[in-house]
Amino acid sequence: MAVLDDNLRKAEGYLERFRKDGVLNHIAGEAVNAADGSTFETVSPIDLKPLARVAHGKAADIDRAAKAAKAAFRDWAAVPGDERKKLLHRIADAIVARAEEIAFVECMDTGQALKFMSKAALRAAENFRFYADRAPEARDGKAMHAPSQLNITTRVPIGPVGVITPWNTPFMLSTWKIAPALAAGCTIVHKPAELSPLTARLLVEIVEQAGLPKGVWNLVNGFGEDAGKALTEHPDIKAIAFVGESVTGSMIMKQGAATLKRVHFELGGKNPVIVFADADLERAADAAVFMIYSLNGERCTSSSRLLVEASIYDAFTAKVAEKARRIKVGHPLDPETVVGPLIHPEHQSKVLSYIELGRKEGAKIAAGGDHVGGPGGGSYVAPTLFTGVTNTMRIAQEEIFGPVLVAVPFKDEAEALALANDTQYGLAGYLWTSDVTRALRFSDALDAGMIWVNSENIRHLPSPFGGVKNSGIGRDGGDWSFDFYMETKNIAFATAPHAIQKLGG
Questions:
Q1: Of the residues 126, 300, 309, 399, which is catalytic?
Q2: Residue in 106, 208, 245, 266 annotated catalytic
Q3: Residue from 363, 385, 424 nearest 292 by CA
């Protein structure tokens, strides 16, 4: 309790500036109110009390930010890769120096547990370091020889880009998108999620204090229907990187169609974890529990469908239920807390409505199944496990985005694959088996952009990240990010005279 009290005092110190000054937009290097002076209120999911007033940006603010990004683009694109490398490393150092502040603010703003958020800033710094080291080679291409011709490819930054980030782990996910964009030479207009805007404000201050030129990174707070729509439609914005719901991704694609915007979408998921009887069952259970109940279940890669071979179904789900019942639900700043409050009362109501739907569909609650009266009286939901689920139930098909796991039995490999693929989503999959040939065969046939075999979600930054079907378009990570934020050019040089047709003379 003493540790929690100490953490709360620190958090209040970090939040004081937001309570006093609000959360402003940041355009052309200046902290500014919305053009029309309007604001909205952000509340903490812990106690539902106000955290700050936030500038409510709209089309005029997006237009100003887009023009600032366009004005800064040529100079930023011309900065040598080695110089961008040094600057991005300075940004990473500055993030590490303020890691506690970032974590505490994020906990209070999102309800995510400090157990996980304490590492979020460090992961964000690693995103900057990874792309810092690649900035000098971002423009590199290929040399291709043809008869009497040498072709040389190069890449150039696409221009000002829009980045729209989600509310679940906003600081880290913002850097995941923005670090490669800056390394490529793009300028940014960032619209963070309206439910958790605080750390985006910290981040833009950190990068400019580290030396990023004014106008390279602009921040506009607002809602999807005003600021988001204006950003996706703005003619000066050449691409949109978005993380969020699949329905919103479809809307963004429509809004950007008139200006032929390039899009990168990381969208929803209903990710299966498939457990065969020959797996290391204790490790599989630990991984399944971690991937659904960490981060409050509010993560796109959560293993929200548990497919278990019928011969071990009862014993395995009993093991998972026991672990779920032991998970500590509590205040995010308590170091022992695993599940904190969900982001907002409306989202809590959505998750609870799915739990009630599961009951009506005939599934059995093996753990949890209700709200929890956590500290502060906020949006708490108990870690929940449904058994006796069929894959046709809505709780097995629709993304709940909370600490809710549904367990479906399968009789053999063919049925397991059919069940795993029987969803509109295809972001991630987790496979547990000791049979190597099965692992190769099954993973090859699984409809998912990312598959982990005998592993939880361990992120390797050079590898591609993204989904198929309704889970997204494009890939993050490694060189794949540069493919999105840059245009490829081909230059052909004649190496010997060749016949040119003579027309008109």
A1: 300
A2: 266
A3: 385
